[in-house]
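Lecture notes, unit on binding sites. The following record was shown on slide 14. It pairs a sequence with guanosine-5'-triphosphate.
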Amino acid sequence: MNTVREKAVLVGLSIGRTYGNGETSRAIVDDHLDELAQLVDTAGAEVIHRIVQNRATIDPAFFIGRGKAEELLWLAKERDIQLFVFDDDLSPVQLRNLEQLIGRKIIDRSGIILDIFASRARTSEARTQVELAQLQYMLPRLTRQWTHLSKQYGGVGTKGPGETQIETDRRAIRAKITHLRTKLRKIDRDRSVQRKGRENFPRAALVGYTNAGKSTLMYRLTGSEVLRENRLFATLDSTVRTLSLESHQRILLSDTVGFIRKLPHHLVASFKSTLDELLEADILIHVVDVSHRAFEDQMGVVEETLREIGVTDVPTIIVFNKTDRVSNQEKLMALARRYPGAVFLSAARAINIGALKERLAGILEEDIVEESLTLRHDQQHLLASIHEMGQVLDKKFDEESVTIRFRIGRKEKGRVDQMLLRSTDPQREEQDD
Ligand SMILES: Nc1nc2c(ncn2[C@@H]2O[C@H](COP(=O)(O)OP(=O)(O)OP(=O)(O)O)[C@@H](O)[C@H]2O)c(=O)[nH]1
Ligand SMILES: [Mg+2]
């Protein structure tokens, strides 16, 4: 591994807006650059400088003004910079122009995020998803700098750099994209089959900004050893574990990839099979790092990303995590008033985890029905299933049958009904109608 870290400069643009909360656009740009610095650090480069330009509009050719771009060239030479990272997405044209002018690597936020995802991806599914997103991102941005592709996608030929090479690379990338899409569709099908198999438990999913503490909370709730790290995008694959609540309720809890401002669209699209966990959740647990200065912006980003995936109208519990790091009690009290159903806890210090379990149980409880059933001899195998899925309150046996009274979730009730239907002979079915 290369131990010398590349030197990077961050570039932000402040376009002179003032936001509703009274903060100037400059303060927001600074916040965003703080986050970008973390991303760049995670990606393995060393941030040595930041540049923010104030402009009325975005320059279509260079994103920042041409004069500013020339300053970057000077800086690159003066301080031996290898990498310039722009906080906003650059168009392929802007990227090419900047690269040509400055002669150093130019990457935008999406590029950095993709890079981190690529180095984090462990399972074959995550790797396939990331690779697809990377290639889609790369395709319109191919320049002479990407000539290494001919080696990566062997058999493409070893012609020297030039337009022909770029065309050849493009064809190779398109073919690879098609191949990866097919592979992901298969993974997607396998996953839906897996999910069908566990359809009969209510499902809850942890969502939230990256580093909010989702995996730590997963560990607290289920005891499962998942990767928890003080890094961005520690988790890329979704993990599902059973969480047993008091009163016999069981739910399947999933932990999945965190969100971030400007999560690249390609990435969201190719992570579809992972994010489907969210689409099919009955309850969302939105984990917020309440100790973070910009936690409200982060909440907004999470809500926006959920909308983008198509997750709407799912009952959501807001969890304000890391309360151990907040000394300002008034801030928490004000939040409690603003978000009446929210739970305040510390996943790392195991403070108030019980309150979250109670909220979960409460939401499930609303969904619970009380039922009575009379089962014939030959249907009594259903008893075991009902015991497993619900809570049996009462059982009366007589010679022919057993009558039970039980409490059960609506979803599980559906499953019992199906089993009942299968075990009922056609004659009886008619009578029942
Ligand atoms: N002080 C404090 N730190 C916490 C708390 N919960 C989590 N952390 C820390 O926050 C960091 C991130 O935690 P994770 O659980 O990995 O966060 P995540 O949301 O899963 O992050 P990604 O998977 O990267 O999206 C870790 O260093 C945790 O130890 C908390 O309640 N208090
Ligand atoms: Mg995680």
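Take-home: Residues 124-195 form one domain.
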